[in-house]
Amino acid sequence: MELTFRILGPVRVCGDGRPLRLPPGRPTAMLVTLLLHAGVAVPVERLREELWAGPAPVSAVANLRSHASQLRRLLTAPGEPPRLHAQHGGYRLRVGPGELDAVEFERLAAEGLAARADGEPRVAAPLLERALALWSVTDPPPAYGPATAAAFDRLRERRAGVREAYAACRLDLGDRGSPELLALLRTHLTENPLREPAWALLMTAQCRAGDQAAALETYRAACRALAGELGIAPGPELTELYRAVRRRWQRPPPFAARPPARDGERAAEARPVLVPHELPCAAAPFVGRHAELARLRTALTSAREHPVTVTVHGTAGVGKSALGLRAAVAALESFPDGQLHLDLGGSVAGTPLPPVEVAARVLRSFQGVTGEPEPTGLAETRARVRSLLFGRRVLLVLDNAADPAQVDGLLPARGGCALLVTSRCPMPDGDVRPLRLDPLPTGVALALLRAVAGDRRVDDEPEAARAVVALCEGLPLALRTVARRLAEGPHWSMARLARLLRDERHRLAETGLGPRLTASYRRLGSAAQVFRRLGGTRTGPLTTETAAALTGLPPEDAVRALDRLVTAQLAEPAGPGRYRVGELVRLYAAELAAVEQPSGHTDEEASSR
Length: 609
Fold this sequence. Notes:
This protein is of the alpha/beta class and 609 residues long. Helices cover 51% and strands 9% of the residues. The protein is flat.
């Protein structure tokens, strides 16, 4: 039976030209996962992660066998060898040349892009057009698992590049801004509003069609999209194109009068106020955290007449900064008057930013250089900030706070401002319940490992990958750091990385957590002595009696010291009178204990080393 598989849109399978009835739900999801890895055995564990959102049931393996049996019967005609095989602890689907639209798309795209790179637009254009024609108007359905979703994301990104290359070929071949080309680019930008080359192509096509006014408006739309989503201005290529259009078209754009200010805003309107867009581009891979993102976005966008403060706290390396940045970007449209991002210095050893400098930095971001005298003292600087922000909708992202005093007194009494604070310790006085961020669960941590090291590294050595996740304790910073060894060194295997991390002499250094833990340790004060002694304990809950015996402190003092460790996110409660200390934190305490100062030196001196 001749089969064709279509996944670039609604999933369809045809046998001898006739549509086959696919079983709904997980069997079809399993088929899509196998098609995305055609010819390669997909481990059962990987299929469980992809087909079940959350913990898989005990019957998952039996269900997979049943799904595989359904698919095998569907795809195999009588007397033919089966297409679907159980192999190496997983399942492999055999797909022939030209049978899968995603593979055909990649082939045509590669040939078309190569022809365009060689300066042959007449050869490239029809190849790229055929590649794009393989996509349905409707996108593929939502995927069950992170790896399947990531694979479709890569295909969509490839399609975006092919569309732009095809449009460029059309322009190279003399297209005068035809309605078909303009419609293609507008559709493309609706789906991909942050791609500057596409904005440039649309402006060029509009100029070719003689509509310079539309080209100028397109540039302004690009500015709004880039500022609203990423907090950046257009790059030099798009800006130079805009200037070239202005030079050729001297008629000024229509003037849009600014609406009058409300009474409470008049004082702020009289001063020169910038609209900063300081949120950095999130470059590191980010997976999971869907519930946390939704909660933060809802809290931030609830700012209306009165400002809100939202706080995120958690241990070193758990991903607070990455989550905060993603949440801020997701809420950008609610803050048209500006977005500010400032690292307060609480995540690494060193001196955190003083409160007066935090307020001054906020002031400079919104006022730039003015002729007004600089405020003197913390109270005056904060008052100037509040006057500046009164009645506005501004998002302040203050990352890695070390002390509540750094973020106090910045928000005005009225207006739609929001303050998002990330810190190790819980920050009081938030308008919503503080969000404590926990390490990633195993499935999501494996998805992060895939995103950095690649799918094949994880699929080839699934047990070693799980060991790496466990040894990194699900901390995103540790996972990204150790995975770079695999990304940068092809000779490294996942098993070798797991062996290195099992060696306690190297684990902490490999995860990169040492400098981050130092920042927490240096703020322990008298509790530093208790922390250093924890390096001599083994895994398992720590009791107050054990802490008192290790340090020689009275039980009441030992309890107070352990509570300070909990506040600093170096320990966590595990029941009445019991505390849990992670292995990476214990290894750090052991390193400190190994270089502990001789008796007679103070804890303050030891902690400054």
